[in-house]
């Protein structure tokens, strides 16, 4: 007797590239790794990092061209004017400030101390040359206003009104 084979029209089943995979196995692997890593690190003595002042990265700044002067406005909240150092050159402003605040509250059964320490530093390039020795600055409500006379005043362009349709 001769066997005849029929060709199957079914496509072979594709097997996944990964062997049988269960999320619980992966979770268990990571849990074991984390536990071993933490136990290894806990055997080392604790290292206390020095208390470094925090530098505030982005102080908000506006520069306005007022024809014969530049007006620079910088936000420096919480800083006293005695803690601000301002240097002006003909083409840039260098601003640095430090804010240190300490509070202490003593009551009958407890003591509370809080400290904050941060600093500002920013160099602001100016769009035009200024007369640096005639610059003035005023601090009010955490906003520093700096007025810088220009070396060569800019003429204001003539305005023409255009009707919008």
Commentary on this structure:
The chain is mainly beta. It has a domain at 55-149: Immunoglobulin-like (Sandwich), CATH 2.60.40. It has one helix at residues 23-42; strands at residues 54-55, 61-65, 69-75, 84-88, 92-106, 111-125, 136-140, 143-149. The strands form 2 sheets. A 4-stranded mixed beta sheet has the order 1-6-5-4, with no helix packed on it. It has a 4-stranded antiparallel beta sheet with strand order 2-3-8-7, with no helix packed on it. A hairpin with a 3-residue loop joins strand 2 and strand 3. The longest helix is centred in the first third of the chain and has 20 residues, at 23-42. The protein starts with 22 loop residues before the first helix and ends in a 16-residue tail after the last strand.
Q: Any descriptors?
A:
165 residues, mainly beta, 1 helix, 8 strands
What is the topology?
Layout: H1 23-42, E1 54-55, E2 61-65, E3 69-75, E4 84-88, E5 92-106, E6 111-125, E7 136-140, E8 143-149
Parallel strand pairs: 1-6
Antiparallel strand pairs: 2-3, 3-8, 4-5, 5-6, 7-8
């Amino acid at each position: 007797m001769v066997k005849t084979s029929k060709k199957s029209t079914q496509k072979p089943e594709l097997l996944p590239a990964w062997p049988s995979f269960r999320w619980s196995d992966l979770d268990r692997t990571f849990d074991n790794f984390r536990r071993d890593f933490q136990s290894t690190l806990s055997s080392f003595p604790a290292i206390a990092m020095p208390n470094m002042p925090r530098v505030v990265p982005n102080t908000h700044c506006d520069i306005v061209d007022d024809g014969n002067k530049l007006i620079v406005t910088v936000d420096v909240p919480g800083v006293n004017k005695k803690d601000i150092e301002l240097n002006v050159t003909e083409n840039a402003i260098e601003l640095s400030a430090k804010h240190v605040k300490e509070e202490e509250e003593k009551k009958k059964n407890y003591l509370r101390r809080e400290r904050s320490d941060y600093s500002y530093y920013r160099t602001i390039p100016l769009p035009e040359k200024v007369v640096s020795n005639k610059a003035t600055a005023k601090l009010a409500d955490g906003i520093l206003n700096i007025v810088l006379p220009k070396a060569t005043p800019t003429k204001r362009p003539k305005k023409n009104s255009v009707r919008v349709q």
